[in-house]
Amino acid sequence: MKIYTRSGDTGQASLFNGERLYKDDDVFQALGDVDELNSALGVASAFISSPEMLEQLETIQSRLIDVGSAVATPLPSSDEAKLQRTHFAGTEHTAQLEAWIDSMDESLPKLTKFILPSGGQAAACLHHARSVCRRAERSIVVLSRRQAVSSEVNMYINRLSDYLFTAARHAAMTQGAVEKVYQKARS
Fold first, then answer.
1. What is the pTM of this model?
2. Which residue intervals define the domain Cobalamin adenosyltransferase-like in the entry (predicted)?
3. 159 or 85: which leads in pLDDT
4. How far apart are CA 91 and CA 152, in angstroms?
5. Average pLDDT, whole number, for the chain?
6. pLDDT tens digits for range 122-146
7. Which one, of 89, 86, 84, 175, lies nearest residue 125 by Cα?
8. Cβ distance 127 to 168 under 8 Å?
9. Where are the domains of the chain?
10. CA distances (Å), 57 to each of 26, 150, 151, in order?
11. If you ran DSSP here, which 8-state letter would residue 77 be given?
12. CA dist., res. 86 & res. 72, Å (int)
């Protein structure tokens, strides 16, 4: 199988359900944002020293492929077999993120001020991934409001940004890097 098909040369691409849409459609915007998030996590992983966090990020990257599958199979225009195949068990996966957040949070100093995206390479990359995650969430909300994607996908992506914020703080702490604190401008 070749990597190129030429089927997208006219500006359209196919979803999992076979529907062809223009590449500037909201579905492809969300798919692209989720894909970019997955790539950002791959970059962050290159700087992570914790085997446990690396394992978590690898699991998350796999779940993001599942999110993409759910997004590429719009609820209103897909048959039951395809919907079952791409069903995203968001409640279960979100609970896993929450458990990881709680575990990391136990060892972190209490947050009393706004922090800037900082704290060394790993933390800065995780903060960047968090920002990309927020964009992906905004793209998915558009689809969720149209009931084209399950609200469980939305819930997972929302919690993932919380995980990435906590993971960035945890990476900074474990690597002995300083998190920079926001300083309000003087009038």
1. 0.93
2. 3-170
3. 159
4. 6
5. 94
6. 999 999 999 999 999 999 999 999 9
7. 175
8. yes
9. 19-69+119-176
10. 26, 23, 22
11. G
12. 9
